[in-house]
Every structure is written in C-alpha cells, then in structure tokens.
C-alpha cells in the first residue's frame, strides 16, 4: 500500500473519509528517527489505519529557542513512513494549522505545565497541548502514541484527554536508545564532536540513580547528588535533575513507590532531556529500565 502525503485539512478529511477500522496517530515535529519508527511500528501492529503528523509547532517554542535550527527533512520522513506502511502523512503548513495567526484561545496545561520542563520553558506545554488538541480533532484517531522520553509531555497529554473528555486512548511507549544509552531525539543530529560523548551525561546519570536505588539508597537528595556528580564528570551541569512522583510530578523525598527521575541539560547549543522510572517493589527490588 502506498503512503499518501497530504498538506491541508480538506485533503486529510477526504483521505480519511473512506477508511474504516481503528485509527492510530503518531504526532511528530519531523526529522523522524528510530524512536518515531518504533512508535509507528507499534501503531502499525495494533491499528488498521496509521496517520503520522509532521508539524513543527511554533507555539511550543519561545522566541529565544531553537525553532529555526530544528532539522526539517520531510522527504526522508515520508520515505521512513512508507517503509513502515503508514497510510497517511499529514504535513500542514503553519498557516493551515493557525489560519488566523496565533490562536487567542489555547489549552492551558495548569500546574503540571509549570514545573520541570515548564519551569525552564514557560508556556511550552500550553503550546504542546493546543496543537495536540487541534491535531486530535483533525485526525480523529482512536489511539495516539507518544514516547516516554517526553514523560512530562505524555503526562499532560493524558490529563488533557481526561480533563476535557476526549474520546482517544493515549499510549506511552518506552524510550528508544543508542547502544551506548543516549536517548534518541531529533536534536541529536546537532551534537557534534565531543558533545556527542558529553551527551551521555544524561543517561549515565539515570543509570547511577538506578544503581543507587538498587543498592538500597532511599534518600532522593542523595540519589540526585550522585547523579549530578556523574554528569559533572563529563563537564555537564544539569538544568535540573529531579526525583518526582510519576503521577503528579510532586517532589519525592524518600523513595517508596515508583519514582520518575528526570533530567535536562544543555550540551553546547542543544538542550536534551531524559528520564527513567525507578520501580520499588516492597523494600528492595528495583527494575532497571535503562540498558
Ligand atoms: O513530541 C513532539 O514531537 C511534539 O511536542 C508534539 C507532540 C508533536 C506536539 O508538537
């Protein structure tokens, strides 16, 4: 079956008109990599019709951020989608998504959007949720797939559909990593020379946190300190490294249940994020989610 590329909402509507069966959507900002490929593969296995959206959403970038340097590779993205048997790629222009300019009515992420990434990037999650809501309306999927690497994004999207009664299932799939542990991201293409090696600071910090918990450490501040020291070995200073409750992102002080360890750092000009969940079953057993 051939993958069809459409750019307008009218084309999308008519391409979807005669389809039947469960529709799965994978939303992206383009520059597709193997992490997206994995999401698409999961969607392909579970759904009859697969739509991939490719839209670099200006609303989620602050003026000072790297929107203009974000890689744009639509031809390669469509080729990857064709390899994975995607039915439809929806790649609208900014004018198509925001015909009246910046929308005056937006989805507000609330308190979950103000912490962690939201504290470093004010308004970011309002921009994400506004475009996700629009793309959900435009593509009308039964299921939407997102990656665990953007854990806070996944959480606020889950809240969006629950709080606003949207009829769509949100599935979160595990982070895909390079062999050395680096989480796949479209931004990795901009890591050159020594910065590629220094970028390992994030996943290594998470491994150190996992190991400390596996060794019985339950004090979140102590675990964060070990992880921070690991990053500093690679001359990387984190924007933040926090241990939080994965359900509401409130700080965890002593590890008892599942704990999300989340980290962000600037490597040269590239801002990276990563996370892992420390799972504590009873007192001692800790699951290692990283390689
Ligand atoms: O994760 C992303 O690529 C973006 O934030 C998303 C969900 C496609 C919204 O623009």
Description:
This protein is α/β, with parallel strands linked by helices and 291 residues long. The protein has two domains: 4-173, 3-Layer(aba) Sandwich (Rossmann fold); 186-284, Pantoate--beta-alanine Ligase, Chain: A,domain 2, CATH 3.30.1300.10. 35% of the residues lie in helices and 20% in strands. It contains ten helices and ten strands. The chain has helices at residues 9-17, 34-46, 74-83, 94-97, 117-120, 124-139, 151-163, 194-198, 200-214, 220-233; strands at 4-6, 23-28, 49-54, 88-90, 143-147, 169-173, 238-244, 259-267, 270-281, 285-287. Strand 5, helix 7 (151-163) and strand 6 form a beta-alpha-beta unit. Helix 9 (200-214) packs antiparallel against helix 10 (220-233). The longest helix is centred in the middle third of the chain and has 16 residues, at 124-139. It is globular and about 55 Å long. Bound molecules: pantoate. Pantoate binds at residues 27-29, 57, 60, 128, 131-132, 150, 153.
Topology:
Blueprint: E1 4-6, H1 9-17, E2 23-28, H2 34-46, E3 49-54, H3 74-83, E4 88-90, H4 94-97, H5 117-120, H6 124-139, E5 143-147, H7 151-163, E6 169-173, H8 194-198, H9 200-214, H10 220-233, E7 238-244, E8 259-267, E9 270-281, E10 285-287
Parallel strand pairs: 1-4, 2-3, 2-5, 3-4, 5-6
Antiparallel strand pairs: 7-8, 8-9, 9-10
Helix pairs in contact: 6-7, 9-10
Bound molecules: pantoate (PAF).
Residues 27-29, 57, 60, 128, 131-132, 150, 153 line the site of pantoate.
